[in-house]
Amino acid sequence: MIAKIKLLAKKAIEKAGLYIVQKKDLERLAEVAADAYEDYPLHNWFTKGKYDKKASKLIMLISLKTMIEDAIIYADSEELNGFAVWLPFGFTGSKTFPFLINGGLKLILHSGLGIIGRLLTYENYA
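and the corresponding structure tokens:
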């Protein structure tokens, strides 16, 4: 059933003239998101009150990499100036192993272990 809904969503997105994001686009999207979240209070909180572009980009890249199989990620165009993510009903967030292999260890090494608690707090809230 979810596969059928995803197919319908993709068709609607493409019909609207939007670009369906590919795995090759994720680095660029993470950069776009990191720029968009500059000094955003949530991302500042993730990194102990001070914006950290590298950490923000890693957070976004990990999120995108871990959800691309379940989600439909679409952008304004192939130029990737802005994007949105469609998640299916029942999506519960990133699991531990995919998080770690998609850059979680790099994030922990960069920002410290405390970032995991802050990310989990946010994910549980969201």
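(Above: one complete record from the training split.) The longest strand covers residues 72-75.
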